[in-house]
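Archive transcription. Copying these from loose printouts into the bound notebook so they stop getting lost. Printout 1 of 2:
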Amino acid sequence: MLLSILREVVADGLLAVVLSFLFWAMWQCPIELTALLVATVIGALRLMRPVWARLAGRMHLRFNQWIEWPVWRRVASVHEAGHLIVAHRLGVPVAGYALTPAASYLHQRCGATYFEHHPNARDPRQLLRTLTVLVAGKVSEELVLGKSVGAGHDLRTLAQWAALIDAGLEAQGRSPVGAGFWQQACEAEARQLLKIDALLIEQVADGMRRHVPVEALLAAVDRARQPATCA
């Protein structure tokens, strides 16, 4: 709070210096008139600031809905499809998903996949499954789109988990392996699971864009693993 007030005071002070230079030094206004004009301009700007903030927010929201979201919608759906498919195939219960049209306006990611709570999340096998699901969105983008552009948050989370794993290894007197090792190993596992049926990623991603219930998407993943039967 105090820092915010200090920033506003400094900003108003700098603005007052600039306006004083314009009115008094360049335009040769009397000192009394210069002081009045500076106070009037700064006061008007302060009154207009809330209105401008609301207007800028609405403009940002509309820009996101009309321009940003149509571009990111496919990326987000392919990314979340990777999370969903790999999680389901590894036995991690999927609770739901969401694609967020106003993601940047709300300072959120464009999509999210939700999982049921595991009672023993730090179990080594469960932790490995968690890391594999975490990088599955990145792998899915690479398989379908040719490159990954929306995995920054996932990789930062993986680095945090890797730091905890390495700390545990060091506590046991073992050498840490680093986040790069876990990322590479888990990406290889996720890629193997997703390459079984690459078209399934597009199918699930399309279903997400059409708001298909998560149960139907999981059923589609199950059907994709069933062998074809002859009539």
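Printout 2 of 2:
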Amino acid sequence: MVDFQCVLKTKSMRTITLTSGTYAVDPILDGFDIIEKPSSNVAFVGTDMLAGKMYVQFKNGSGYIYSEVDADTLSFVPIAESIGKFISSKVVKHFPSVKQENALIVKGEEIMGDPVLIITGDIKDFPAKSEAGIIFQMSEGATMEYIEPKSGNNDPEF
């Protein structure tokens, strides 16, 4: 049973389509080229050649933005045989970094041309809630719309 469904609409977020689906990208990553590479720990890697920055998002949602990354290192990201080994040997402890506690790239959709994030699930599965309701971290310019759950049985009819 679905306890909630929320739609976060934000014109400031862009959407990207990768092999595994469509994603909403936080404005912090404007200018980054985002790719996926097979990995047991790394979900996404983004590079911004002009700014000398690299973003790594892990499958648990946390990530790091690395700065002052040289062009040679950034150019090897797409062709690295093992992205996890490349990051740990050539990036971690070699460049300044800022930890990102929350995912900056999330599963998303596009509705009528505006990037949105649709969150659907059981309330028990959502990590943060208060007496006033569910807490979402949203970028500036984002709005949230709460959609009332359907009453009764949500099973499909055959």
